[in-house]
């Protein structure tokens, strides 16, 4: 069997339509969108067309509320640091959760260490869900921002963002959500969610790497985190990555068009995979919530008293790609902060593997992986 790629949460393959849309902007319509000549104006028009498509992906009413960035990490940094610096005179308290992506956690850590902010980290239950009552209890007079991710990158937990954002709104607090994993898998409507800022990354929904976006609701104050020119309506300096923005726009357009069909396929494959795993192994635990509250593409499992790195190494020998959790944390020998936060039992902590599904995956591939896993797990168990 050909290579099997079950690591779409880390990155996805670019669609042919996306590559085709990008090509002219490398050597034909390559002008700087900030230039005033005709070629620059054409480039600027293409950039704004891409912005419109990204706005449609999240249901934003105005394309100008979309700020292009170099990816989801920059979008998170711009949202958290940008708002914090803009509103520091109003207050220096931020609320987030213990299972956020490191782009959020490290941004909060930076504000705490260098600018004197106070950060409250919400607990989560065994399924990774934030408790609304705890959020209400953590709110203070000086709270200026709440940041809770829409869907978790490791265990797939979908948070009740609409309810959480309503609490923020009732207390006149801005709300940011990291929707990097959710885009392309879940229908996102900004006004329904009620959020003020939302982060995206193109390469998570079959677009190019190196391009992302931040939705910034009109009227939200934000201090730019990159100094220079007045690009992106003075919110993000630097010459626009035009080809990548066009690619993101095309990927967003396709994601909107195919969302329901893709979602149903992924849910069917995910549930089939989980059933096969449960039927095949008695030393296995499914990490995260039930199907209704889990991302369609996410399966996170732990094998009791086994080492995930050993399992992944053996899977890779059969050309099977999976992950231990967040790609941004790969290479780190520390136990996942997400699994710690859900209080996963010690015997399961080091044996956690994330399989994430996407375009082109099939039941036949799942069956092949299950067979290989049986061989690997049996061999590793025999060595204990």
From TrEMBL:
Cofactor(s) demanded: pyridoxal 5'-phosphate
Catalytic reaction annotation: (sulfur carrier)-H + L-cysteine = (sulfur carrier)-SH + L-alanine
Pfam families, per database record: Aminotran_5
Residue span(s) of domain Aminotransferase class V: 4-367
Record-level Gene Ontology MF annotations: cysteine desulfurase activity; iron-sulfur cluster binding; metal ion binding
Keyword Transferase among UniProt keywords: yes
Iron-sulfur among keywords: yes
E.C. number(s) listed in UniProt: 2.8.1.7
Keyword field: Iron, Iron-sulfur, Metal-binding, Pyridoxal phosphate, Transferase
Protein family (similarity comment): Belongs to the class-V pyridoxal-phosphate-dependent aminotransferase family. NifS/IscS subfamily.
Record-linked PANTHER family: CYSTEINE DESULFURASE, CYSTEINE DESULFURYLASE FAMILY MEMBER
The protein's name in its UniProt record: cysteine desulfurase
Organism: Halanaerobium kushneri
Lineage: Bacteria, Bacillati, Bacillota, Clostridia, Halanaerobiales
């Amino acid at each position: 069997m050909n290579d099997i790629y079950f690591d779409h949460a880390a990155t996805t393959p670019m669609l042919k339509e996306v590559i085709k849309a990008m090509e002219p902007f490398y050597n034909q319509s390559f002008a700087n969108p900030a230039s005033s000549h005709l070629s620059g104006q054409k480039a600027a028009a293409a950039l704004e067309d891409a912005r419109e498509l990204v706005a449609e992906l999240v249901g934003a009413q105005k394309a100008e509320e979309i700020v292009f960035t170099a990816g989801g990490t920059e979008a998170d940094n711009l949202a958290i640091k940008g708002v914090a610096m803009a509103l520091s005179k109003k207050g220096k308290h931020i609320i987030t959760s213990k299972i956020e992506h490191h782009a959020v956690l490290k941004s909060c850590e930076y504000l705490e260490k260098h600018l004197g902010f106070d950060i409250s980290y919400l607990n989560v239950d065994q399924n990774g869900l934030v408790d609304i009552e705890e959020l209400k209890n953590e709110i203070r007079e000086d709270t200026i921002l709440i940041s809770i991710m829409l869907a978790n990158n490791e265990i797939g937990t979908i948070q009740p963002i609409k309810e959480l954002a309503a609490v923020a709104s009732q207390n006149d607090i801005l709300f940011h959500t990291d929707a990097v994993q959710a885009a392309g898998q879940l229908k996102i409507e900004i006004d329904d969610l009620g959020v003020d800022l939302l982060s995206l990354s193109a390469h998570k929904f079959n677009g190019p790497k190196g391009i992302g976006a931040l939705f910034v609701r009109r009227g939200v104050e934000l201090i730019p985190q990159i100094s220079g020119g007045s690009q992106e309506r003075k919110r993000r300096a630097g010459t626009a990555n035009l080809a990548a923005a066009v690619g993101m726009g095309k990927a967003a357009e396709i994601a909107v068009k195919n969302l329901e069909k893709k979602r149903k396929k992924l849910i069917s494959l995910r549930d089939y995979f989980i059933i096969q795993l449960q039927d095949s192994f008695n030393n296995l635990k499914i990490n995260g919530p039930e199907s209704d509250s889990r991302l369609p593409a996410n399966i996170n499992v732990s094998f009791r008293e086994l080492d995930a790195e050993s399992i992944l190494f053996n899977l890779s020998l059969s050309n099977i790609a999976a992950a231990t959790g967040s790609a941004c944390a790969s290479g780190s020998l520390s136990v996942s902060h997400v699994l710690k936060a859900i209080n996963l039992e010690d015997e399961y902590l080091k044996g956690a593997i994330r399989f994430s599904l996407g375009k082109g995956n099939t039941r036949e591939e799942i069956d092949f992986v299950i067979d290989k896993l049986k061989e690997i797990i049996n061999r590793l168990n025999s060595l204990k």
